[in-house]
Amino acid sequence: MKVIFQADVRGQAKKGEMKEVSDGYARNYLLPRNLAVEANRDNMNALRLKEKARAAQEAKERALALENAKKLEGILVKIPAKAGANGRLFGSVTSKEISEALEAQHGLMIEKQKIVLSEPIKSFGSYDIKCKFGYTIDGVIHIIVVEEK
Predict the structure, then answer these.
(1) How far is CA 3 from the centre of its chain?
(2) End-to-end CA distance of the chain
(3) Judging by DSSP bridges, how do beta strands 36-38 and 18-20 pair with one another?
(4) pTM: predicted TM-score of the whole model, two decimal places
(5) Contact 2, 20 (CB under 8 A)
(6) Which of 10, 23, 34, 90 gives a 20 to 30 Å CA spacing to 74?
């Protein structure tokens, strides 16, 4: 019997795959637990529609990521921070602060999880911070950490 898997089944298939399995296994295990549905015309059409919608969503997210990466090229973000002794900061500049400053100064909304800090920023100066958007698209945020008055 051909079935379309609705969930990952260890050792059998991943969600969305269509596979031939024995009739008893399908009737007694997969179908009652809603792990799979029979591969009839309606279910196959629904699978195609879901796949098409997923591909469209992925293309939309990829285009948005490319657009954001291009916007970051000419942007300079100033981040004010409290000064300590010898030009050092109290604490450090976090990805959350970078994200908030980027939104406040330039209106660009980038989640803090996408901003990659290789090491904490603990002193004043200019930095280039990598930003991973996914789909192998990266951008660079140019920031300047200045003393808060």
Answers:
(1) 31
(2) 73
(3) unpaired
(4) 0.71
(5) yes
(6) 90
Say how far apart CA 131 and CA 72 lie, in whole Å: 9
DSSP string, the chain: -EEEESS-BTTTB-TT-EEE--HHHIIIIITTTTSEEE--HHHHHHHHHHHHHHHHHHHHHHHHHHHHHHHHTT-EEEEEE-B-GGGEEEEEE-HHHHHHHHHHHH-----GGGEE-SS-EEESEEEEEEEEEETTEEEEEEEEEEE--
Report how far apart, in Å, the C-alpha atoms of 38 and of each of 27, 69, 75, 133 are. Answer: 9, 43, 53, 38
How do residues 3-43 score in pLDDT, each as one tens digit? 999 999 999 999 999 999 999 999 999 999 999 999 999 99
What integer pLDDT is reported at residue 83 of this predicted model? Answer: 84
Going by DSSP bridges, is the β-strand pair 125-134/115-116 parallel, antiparallel, or unpaired? antiparallel
Quick one: residue 86, left, alpha or beta (phi over 0 = left, psi -120 to 50 = alpha)? Answer: left
Q: What is the pLDDT of residues 58-99, one digit of tens each?
A: 999 999 999 989 999 889 999 999 887 777 888 899 999 999
Cβ–Cβ under 8 Å, residues 117 and 50: no
